[in-house]
Amino acid sequence: MINYFELKKWYNENAEKINNSIVKNIYNIEDGIVFELYKPGLENRFLYIIPGKIVFLYNVKEREETNNFTLKLRKDFNETKINIEIDNNDKIIIIKNNERKLYIELFPNGLLIVTDYNDIILYANQYKNFGVRKIFRNEKYIKPPGSVNIINNINDFFEKVNNTNKKDVVRFLAIDLSLGGKYSEYIVKKANVDKNKSPKELNKEEIEKIYNIYNEIVNLKIIIDENGNIIDDINKYFINLYLNSRENRRIKKLNEEKEKIKRIIEEQKRYLDEINKEINRLEKIGEFLNIYSWIFKDYDKNNIIKNFREININIDIKKDDKYLIINIDDKYLENK
Q1: What is the CATH number of the domain that holds 200?
Q2: Of the candidates 232, 251, 277, which is a domain's last residue?
Q3: Which domain holds residue 204?
Q4: Percent of the chain, pLDDT > 90?
Q5: Count of domains in the chain?
Q6: How many CA atoms lie within 13 A of 322 on its CB side?
Q7: Is residue 114 a part of any domain in this protein?
């Protein structure tokens, strides 16, 4: 999942490309929606919006699909000029035309919310009651609590370090400073600080080193990938994240299908084994009857029992109006 600083970097580099473009069409894909844009010189004219995860510009058009939500978006945004904004301290992108605003929340619940210019909710892709805020029609849109708090000077940073209750530096950076694990690991490694060290045990020099790297990140001078490498093209990075995620989902789905087929095959094998056992049992019965058919020639129950006992085979016979029902000792058949 991308963090706020990565999103801000993407916004800074791509907002002007999007601003004042015309929405030609809107359609939904498996996990989000796509705005098809027109603007002279716009190379990547498809704005992919994956709620709860990512946004990016792309030059590939997916198969067009629609649902009720995208049909409403088309009515409100098609053939209108749009501009894009970012919330100052949160992972929220806003697309605006002259009458409507679309709030794109890029954290776990993945909400897309359309409001008027008074921020009254008109419709959304999901309706939820979070207690502190309600995503329902005619409610006032309120963004989630817990926005990113950026520290802009070293004195405030020292105070933050001294007041934290986190047991190690990585957790302090990841949670208290909203950096996440990737950037926290990067900072302690670059600052040459033991990541398991308590923040309160840091000396002045270590805190200053950490702050300087932190400052480069929040000012978007350092944006890294999962391997700690500096990202040159943030939009391309977002595209690759999306494509890799989709490929991982595809592989996961294939593996689930594979496991399902394996279970079916195992069940069929067990069923086939049972059938083969039954065939084998019936073959032994047939062989038995063929060998000892002479005993049954007069269909006399007592005589049949007597003859089998003479050859040390235990059987049990019941007789109805038409048939002799014979139970043969299974141990004898198993030894055949």
Answers
A1: 1.10.8
A2: 232
A3: 154-232
A4: 52
A5: 3
A6: 0
A7: yes
Same domain, 43 and 85: yes
Return the residue matching tokens 């207690």. 131
Cα separation, 126 vs 115, in Å, equals 14
Does 247 map to a domain? Answer: no
Q: What is the pTM of this model?
A: 0.75
Q: Which residue has the higher pLDDT, 251 or 126?
A: 126
Q: What is the mean pLDDT of the chain?
A: 87
